[in-house]
Amino acid sequence: MNILFFAYDFERGGIARYSREVAEGLGRLGHKVFVVSDFSEGQAALTGHEAFTPVSFPKRELKSASFWLDFVPFRLLGKKLSVEMFLLAALFPYGPMALALSKSTGIPFSIFVHGAELFVEKLKTRLVVSTIFAKAAHIICVSHFTRDLLLERFPRSRSPVVIPPGTHPESFLPLADRKPLLEKHGLAGKRILLTVSRLVRRKGHAQVVRALPSLVERVPELVYLIAGTGPAEEELRALVHETGLEECVRFLGFVEDKTLSELYALCDVFVLPSFKTTDTESGSRGVEGFPAVFLEASACGRPVIAGKSGGSPEAVLDGITGLIVDGENVEQISEAVLRLLLDEGLVNRLGQNGRKRVEEEFSWETIVRRIEKQMCG
């Protein structure tokens, strides 16, 4: 099948990584995948891109006057490439474009739904979104939570199915001895908490920071590593300064995949206590769809702590692969972290269970074949 895949962001972030895995996976299965994104912004997204063909278009916001200038070029591109399916990495900004292209050409479109994009309130936008979901040939939701939310907010949606993200268990591996890696990163003798995510309020970084004073009293060698960037970074740094925690909190910024696998492997506990929010000013509106970072940490054999918001409880099985907490409750977070830091047997059991689950259910090879079966029948 010839697929024109609209991926607004193809380089950084959870949806960008999801998009790349889908494009590469479908390409390896023999489909011709043409990825529309702004590849002029950087070449990192093109590394190892033999499985798909990049088609560079400048980023245009849906609200901008220039957005619809690309309609004719996209229509001509679809004809030139003999496209049989338009595929959307996410609802915005290309959902309305795919709807118009499909109506004009008769070519069906499919869409991935993650969760946070469903919180649209303006009546005009809701009507457009409702039509997109009603006309889509296939709707693939990343979690049961996302599917239920979609049907609640847009009941005309056409038969959504659930296919979660995956990971690469052959790349994210447990370590028998973490000491050399701790020494390499200047963390010898430390106990490590790790969060990997975009820095926005709903991810719960601030709640972890607020839990640290009581944790450090019990575990003085504790260090909290924060990997990622985002609009809440300045606020988080200020909180760390106010609480006098500069010595035990480290901001790592954007981390490449190779280093990321090392961070997962060396941490004692991975924590992402997300919670639902309507905070539009911080870019944090919404909930978690299905955080793939939990799968990556589990693949490395590490225990995880998740907030009970959204699809996180589908990524983390409470008491089996990790612990579920109220992401807004600092005391619950503190208790869960301390429980894991002080119980090696529990840590080993949760880590082993998580690794086994990833191997059996969440390899990208398995996930992409499920996506292919859904789209191709």
Chain-wise SSE layout:
Elements: E1 2-6, H1 14-28, E2 32-37, E3 53-56, H2 71-80, E4 85-88, H3 95-105, E5 109-113, H4 123-135, E6 138-141, H5 144-153, E7 161-162, H6 179-184, E8 191-196, H7 205-218, E9 222-227, H8 233-242, E10 249-253, H9 257-266, E11 269-272, H10 293-299, E12 304-307, H11 312-315, E13 322-325, H12 330-341, H13 344-361, H14 364-376
Helix pairs in contact: 1-14, 3-4, 7-12, 10-13
Question: How would you sum up this structure in a few lines?
Answer:
The protein is α/β, with parallel strands linked by helices and 377 residues long.
Structure description:
By secondary structure, the protein is α/β, with parallel strands linked by helices. The protein has two domains: 2-166 and 363-376, 3-Layer(aba) Sandwich (Rossmann fold); 179-361, Rossmann fold (3-Layer(aba) Sandwich), CATH 3.40.50. Helices cover 41% and strands 16% of the residues. The protein has 14 helices and 13 strands. It has helices at residues 14-28, 71-80, 95-105, 123-135, 144-153, 179-184, 205-218, 233-242, 257-266, 293-299, 312-315, 330-341, 344-361, 364-376, and strands spanning 2-6, 32-37, 53-56, 85-88, 109-113, 138-141, 161-162, 191-196, 222-227, 249-253, 269-272, 304-307, 322-325. The protein has a seven-stranded parallel sheet, with helices on both faces. Helix 4 links the parallel strand 5 (109-113) and strand 6. Helix 3 packs across helix 4 (123-135). The termini are close together. Residues 280-284 have low confidence and may be disordered.
